[in-house]
């Protein structure tokens, strides 16, 4: 949910077009402009879905050709619009490739403990300690690297540290994790575009070799840390971390139990400081400033009240964005809020589809890598649904002429309608990204969002004002009461039957169809918009068609899942890999799963599953008695040629080292094999693996 949650209801619905207006070419020409960002988004997603990097010259040449075609077809309405859509799609593809070309190449992460020296660029406060990001690091005295490293400090390492300090620390470093299964979330791509080269943990205490000179960045960071520390000191451990997150953006300090309660209830957006929060802050400041200006005859006679209120609201939004870290979602929300305020000052609609299209276009130009992520998809789908929904039926919530009971009822109905639109539009994308659905999100948001808007954040703003006087406890107390009430709501909703429904991973094409259908429903007018229902229905149905694999091997072969009749058996070797197990949970969401250590159930290091079709071998010595007629042989250790036979699939430690996670699906007598390497292809953010690769069969 974005700034629209606060501002959309202030905008009067646009007048409905006269009958037959949609039949005119001018009406369609006005709406086709709204689809240009959709085409650009499609081009960006196409780039990230490719399995091979296109030639660097291809996109510029195609853009020039598309521009030429657009010029030639300028006076032909249909051809002109199609050429414009193609041009923007190519612009999206080219901008995404250009962004990838601008990023420094991945680094080779050494094995074992290394000495890392460099400059601290940021510090994260975690529930179990601190985590630092070191820019331009040197490993064991080598040259400065173009990518940063992120290191978790040892518990109890409380050395005084600030952004800009030069440091030295001994640490284990790890390359970006491979996806837990073919088609899983690519952490390598995230780290590639965020400028990270490796992550790790310290094995010794961090040494500060040079203290940075005070600067604006360091001063702001210290101010945020001071505010967070005072909030955590003044409030209980259950509500303090949430309050610190809302006021400073340090969300890593929230305990896992409270975070999961918010996720289960569909309230995770409250913990992710973004559009809702900055909308509340700026909306409250706008209303307060306009009220105060009304008491000054001098100002009212010289400056329009809405101009002063807009300036105060924008300044407050910038301050709040600075206090919460100027991260990408808050920057995007601040830009959208600025567009809303500009519309108010200019006497135009505060929120409109054209404004949303401009915001999307600007954001995709600045950071095209955000388009495949959940934040971009969920926020823009929610805002689109809010604007289109209130355009269609917003008049039904008009409280003019109604009594207090009618106004109260319509406000509650409007809040429920807002939650339905925003949550319903973003839920399919959340299900695609996180493989989970929260069916009671409307109930939870009906209580939590008003609490946040009327109690929690206003009290937090007052606490920030009172901190220089050391009186923040007066405001933090009611803020804590509001957070405690939200926690109670989250826990109540989380205990309802089927409060969190886990679903299996979905292929990409249903989500693309769903996005197209939502664009048609939201951007068109009249009955023609109903054409978007078919893609939405097909997309929702397609999201349910994903089939779990019959055999799944983790990127390190320490976990192996095999379908054995009605049960999926997951075998563990070495120490339990809880992270990969959590990633696999949605994959087998509709199956009965049994997890066991391989040593406990495999006599002599051998196990047979699925009527002998799958053979599990603990190591090469377990293959001395042969592999029989097994169609698939799996081992967490190198088999070094054992069990090789025509028509047999042998997956060992070398297989996953070469190709990443591997999945197999049985279809009668055929075996369909998919590897992570085949899914990701050869891209700039994918590690340079050996030349050989398993092809999909």
UniProtKB/TrEMBL annotation:
It is found in: Cell membrane. It is a multi-pass membrane protein. Residues 54-204 form the DUF4131 domain. InterPro entries: ComEC_N, Competence_DNA_uptake, DUF4131. The keyword Transferase does not apply. GO terms for cellular component: plasma membrane. Keywords: Cell membrane, Membrane, Transmembrane, Transmembrane helix. Residues 246-526 form the ComEC/Rec2-related protein domain. Pfam families: Competence, DUF4131. This is Uncharacterized protein.
